[in-house]
Amino acid sequence: MIGIFDSGVGGLTVLRALREELPSADVVYFGDTKNAPYGERSREELSALTVAGLRLLQERGAERIVSACNSVSASLAVSLYDAFSLRHDQLIEMVGPTVSFFRGTTMRLAVCATPATVRSDIYGSAFRMIGKDVHSIAIPELAGAVESGAPEAEIKKIISGAFGGEKSFDVLILGCTHYPFASDVFRDVLGSSVTLFDPAEEVAQRAQKQFWPQEAGNGGTRFIISKDSERFRALAEELLPDEEYSVEVLE
Ligand code: DGL
After folding, report:
1. CATH class of 95-198
2. Is the pLDDT reported for residue 78 higher than 60?
3. What is the CATH architecture assignment of 2-93+201-249?
4. Distance from the CA of 241 to the center of ligand 1, in angstroms?
5. How far apart are CA 251 and CA 232, in angstroms?
6. Please, which residues have CB within 8 angstroms of residue 48's CB and are 6 or more apart in sequence?
7. C-alpha distances in angstroms, 97 versus 34, 199, 200, 204?
8. Best residue among 5, 49, 69, 98 to mutate for probing ligand 1, ranked by most atoms within 8 Å of CB
9. pTM, whole model, 2 decimals?
10. Ligand 1: does its nearest atom lie under 6 Å from the Cβ of 229?
11. Average pLDDT over residues 220-242
12. Closest Cα to atom 2, ligand 1: which residue?
């Protein structure tokens, strides 16, 4: 079984892409709706939440993990592999597949993400390893606004505020899995000269390569959320209209 981990609704964008690549995989998804948003939390808090989330997924039978939360990647210490007896091929996170996609490109790149992800410099350091610069832009409050279903005008104000007049890049990487829900607003604010890149597809393709055929199953989906959320239920329905799934609420 594949475990997907996110603070809340963001990982649904990754699950949707994963379903294209691995339709028969059984998936257990943990959305930590009680503690979302993660992106303004300290590294220590994120480490503790990551440990708890991974433990829960393993207890529920996940043998392979997609960490669909960039803010969590920022706290994924190497020692976690040992703590959870995971091999490297059993864990996929968002940053590696994204950076590998842009290897060799001459385009000017920017990544927008939560304050925790930007502060960790996880994209910056990974891109430097392939000799590329990436401009990082933190967008405080956007993941929380998407998580709670804030009105579009509010989302637009947050995104416009983060960019100001700054548009000196060709590609904007959506370095938070909540952000694809606001793609239309990003396009509106940035105009057509900037291409948006959602890493979900690359991550799903990586999962297909790494997890197939071991993860051939019945295509079942089970959601676990730490606090009930109408918004989560509505987006799951919207993104996976043809799927049968169960939702378990921990609290
Ligand atoms: N979707 C997550 C990410 O990719 C977490 C966002 C948040 O909860 O702040 O960073």
Report:
1. alpha beta
2. no
3. 3-Layer(aba) Sandwich (3.40)
4. 23
5. 15
6. none
7. 28, 8, 9, 9
8. 69
9. 0.96
10. no
11. 96
12. 69
**Domain limits, CATH 3.40.50.1860, in the chain:** 2-93+201-249, 95-198
Residue 166 pLDDT greater than 70, yes or no: no
Catalytic residues: 69, 176
Q: How far is the CA of 186 from the centre of ligand 1 (A)?
A: 17
CA–CA dist 186, 196 (Å, integer): 8
CA 13 to chain CA centroid, Å, is: 8
| 76, pLDDT greater than 80 | no
Q: Which atom of ligand 1 is nearest to the CA of 176?
A: 4
Provide the percentage of residues in the chain whose pLDDT is more than 90: 86
What's the 73 CA to ligand 1 centre distance in angstroms? 10
**177 pocket-lining for ligand 1 (C-beta < 6 Å):** yes
Indicate whether 80 pLDDT > 80: no
> Length of the chain in residues, anyone?
251
Ligand 1 site-directed mutation target among 9, 111, 177, most atoms within 8 Å of CB: 177
- pLDDT value at position 73? 79
Q: Establish whether residue 13 lines the binding site of ligand 1, counting it when its CB lies within 6 angstroms of any ligand atom.
A: no
How sure is the predictor about 44, in pLDDT bands with cuts at 50, 70 and 90?
confident
**For residues 84 and 58, what is the distance between their CA atoms, to the nearest angstrom?**
8
HSE of 30, CA atoms in CB hemisphere, 13 A: 26
Q: pLDDT digits over 9-19, tens only?
A: 999 999 999 99
Q: Residue 115 pLDDT more than 80?
A: yes
199 CB less than 6 Å from ligand 1? no
Considering the chain, what is the average pLDDT of its residues?
A: 94
